[in-house]
């Protein structure tokens, strides 16, 4: 330790040891005096003094790293504002306490110091504590922190939010958000701002669509790039993530960073800064009707959630983050949680966990941010409600995570009594997370799309039990990162499980099209509109409407339509399979036939106006449907051709093995879905009212692909 | 979850170290990074100092920071409230109830912090007040207004004041601040706005029932 007269290290160390460890005082004093006498000499470590302190600047934070001290209980991080010449211009403050549960590896401790005003210059020192006994401070490091992102003299880059301009004293209000958003839209070719809906009070819900050199022109084209999405502000009184989103939009719009541009050249980032503009303006959690929107993503009673769900349907993000703030002072900086509902496909859960534990924990340990599992201290939160976006998106086969920003500094960030410090730390921690999210997406897009494809095949197969409520367990992360306490087990009870899934739900005309009272007056929507917003396939049949479970969002279907659902939309009639065993000979379908794991040794003919639903099993012989009301074939094996012509309702073929040609022709309903099939033969699609889609789940086709199916 | 500051009212002790620049220069000339200008805030026309008093003042914008007390002195009260970061709930309540007009008269505003609101009302209750029961909320706010722009010293000297809602408040001195009805204390007093004094207080006044902790408040969920 280089000791300078009047420097606190020269004063504090002897004083502390005089109080606590008189025996070593003289030796320490000798070292101190020697150093004082020869200030130019190389530093000499004192016992238990932190060595190797470095600082690296990020956007709105500074990562401190140091060599661990044997036996240290924790470390204290001290920050002092300094002038260019190094003289202190402010008080020295303990701004951080590093604890072993902060990161997955204790061999390379790091701490992301944040909360300071960007651009100011500081000096940092770190000291270990053994028990409660403070050890000598490290030699200081000093550096200028990064200013607000973007050259203030370059158009576009010079844009600033209200929050930035006021150094966090004010959040960016709605009017300033729109102006800032419009300016980015105007000045950057990479950004298109689309209005995905309106709030109850008619505020626009905007979305940044960001790609390089330009974003794809249509939602369908965006979907083809495997986009990622951030939902920034669902609770109006949790504005920290929203400010990060606004800053990130500017960075992505105007950065020259080759790595970022590389990522944006391969995908599209969707940023929804304010889904709940009314609640933000009112500083309320709910929207203007008081509805908590994060309890409405499945039911979509509100225009805000409907807009978001329709965006997911049309733009098809494969990964997402959902921004919140959390009032527990004793948890990590960044509580996160994957979709846990047990109806979520295993691969989506696993990949979400990989994003959180595999990536965020690792990168957090590198950059000094403390990510941890939400639930945090045993609180009864982070459960399986499908009404919560985290679970809704999982049930829509989107790899995703909740993100919480710890509201108060708590014991590990003791300098956050200052409101601006607190707000800045929260927002810049969110900004770090969203950049890491983009990086993870870029590095893992193959794994994410594979998980998504498998999930779509699995869900469409309609196999296995249905769980109405109940979570997958979140295991505690191995020490030294116990991750506080994971959320409760939340296993489903017996009454929340349906072992034998129905084939479909049947809704009456009144259930499907009848007026409803849930939702804001004047903006209420029917079940038909909501299922359409989810993008579900519905077959018009005699006496009502049939919603097959065998479709990509199968896990969510019963949660809205079953009589046993915890927060259902309507209690549909369960339609059981009509054939489960073996049938020798041809099958002619009139009315509705549902084959579940059935074996048909003979051809299948679907008569005009009839509906065929096949989940699994095998068919020997051609399958012909002409003028059917609906045609659903999933996870099946067909030896022979499949001809689907002139269907008036949905056509869905997912995850089948078909030996023979497949023809999808002249169907007049919504876009046929052909995804994840293996076709030994040609695939031909022509004359369909809406071109068939594959949800970016490719088909393996042995023969040529014709016309509307050329790209599938 | 709204912003809360567990440490509000308990500012970390700070002291300026007696360091001479020349002595430290040798130690601190490490890693001079890029320099970048700090964006200027809204505080341009700064009238001569406005002295605010109370333990919370240290946690609020000061000096030349955006939202510092002097920069608010000429602003309409409803605007000034938008610059005090611990008053987001009170400020939203003013807008929700259309009370800004009433704040253009000479008035004293006893403004509870966000922590005070969070300690008084459950989140559900608070949403109800902000979104639906705005008549009730307006009456509550009026119980935090006193006619005349009174410095905290004048409030203490008066001993008793009557709120615009008609409630009588007993005021006693506590240090440089005031205690109101043994219910609340000023935590940062004597903000000035155009025609107004704003005293930040640590509890909600009035007689609405306390609902904090009654619903999901214990573990606010995402």
Please give a handful of descriptors for the protein shown.
heterodimer, A: 712 residues, alpha/beta, Aminopeptidase, 4 domains, eight-stranded mixed beta sheet, 15 helices, 26% helix, elongated, disordered N terminus, B: 222 residues, alpha+beta, FAS1 domain, FAS1_dom_sf (chain B), FAS1 domain-containing protein (chain B), FAS1_domain (chain B), Adhesion/Biosynth-related (chain B), Peptidase M14 domain-containing protein (chain A)
Q: Helix and strand layout, with pairings?
A:
The complex is a heterodimer of chains A (712) and B (222).
Chain A: H1 8-20, H2 22-37, E1 51-57, E2 61-67, E3 74-82, E4 88-98, E5 110-114, E6 121-130, E7 133-137, E8 141-144, H3 162-165, H4 174-187, E9 191-198, E10 204-210, H5 219-223, E11 228-231, H6 240-254, H7 258-266, E12 269-272, H8 277-282, H9 303-315, E13 319-326, E14 334-337, H10 346-367, E15 371-373, H11 389-395, E16 399-406, H12 419-461, E17 466-467, E18 497-498, E19 504-507, H13 509-513, H14 527-534, E20 539-541, E21 544-548, H15 557-561, E22 573-575, E23 582-584, E24 587-589, E25 592-596, E26 599-601, E27 604-606, E28 611-615, E29 618-620, E30 623-626, E31 630-634, E32 637-639, E33 642-645, E34 651-654, E35 657-659, E36 662-665, E37 673-675, E38 678-680, E39 683-686, E40 700-701, E41 705-707
Parallel strand pairs in A: 11-12, 11-13, 13-16, 14-15, 23-26, 24-27, 25-28, 26-29, 27-30, 28-31, 29-32, 30-33, 31-34, 32-35, 33-36, 34-37, 35-38, 36-39, 38-40, 39-41
Antiparallel strand pairs in A: 1-2, 2-5, 3-4, 3-6, 6-7, 6-8, 9-10, 10-12, 14-16, 17-18, 19-21, 19-22, 20-21
Helix pairs in contact in A: 1-2, 4-6, 6-12, 9-14, 10-12
Chain B: H1 21-28, H2 69-72, H3 77-81, H4 88-97, E1 107-112, H5 114-120, H6 123-131, H7 134-142, E2 145-147, H8 152-158, E3 160-162, E4 168-174, E5 177-180, E6 184-193, E7 196-201
Helix pairs in contact in B: 4-7, 6-7
